[in-house]
C-alpha cells in the first residue's frame, strides 16, 4: 500500500533525500519570500513617506500665507 516501509525510508527517499528535501526547502523559501516581500516593501515605503513628510514640515517657514518678509 505504501511505497516506503518506514518514516526513515520516506525521508531518505532512496538515498536522494538530501537533494529532494533541499529542493523543497529552497522552493518553500522562495514562496515565503514572494509572499512577504511586497508587504515589507510597502511598510518601508510608508515609513519613508512619513519620515519625508515630517522632515518637510519641519523645514517650512512659520508663515503659511505665502508672503515673504522684506
Written account of the structure:
It is rod-shaped and about 90 Å long. It starts with 6 loop residues before the first helix and ends in an 11-residue tail after the last helix. The protein has helices at 7-12, 17-59. The protein is built from 2 helices and no strands. 70% of the residues lie in helices and 0% in strands. With 70 residues, the chain is mainly alpha-helical. It has a domain at 17-52. The relative contact order is 0.05.
In short:
By secondary structure, this protein is mainly alpha-helical.
Q: How many H/I helical runs?
A: 2
Task: Give the termini distance in whole angstroms.
Answer: 93 Å
Give the CA-based shape.
Answer: rod-shaped
| Oligomer state of the chains in this structure | single chain
Q: Which structural class is indicated by helix and strand composition?
A: mainly alpha
Mean pLDDT: 86
Radius of gyration from the alpha-carbon trace, in angstroms: 28 Å
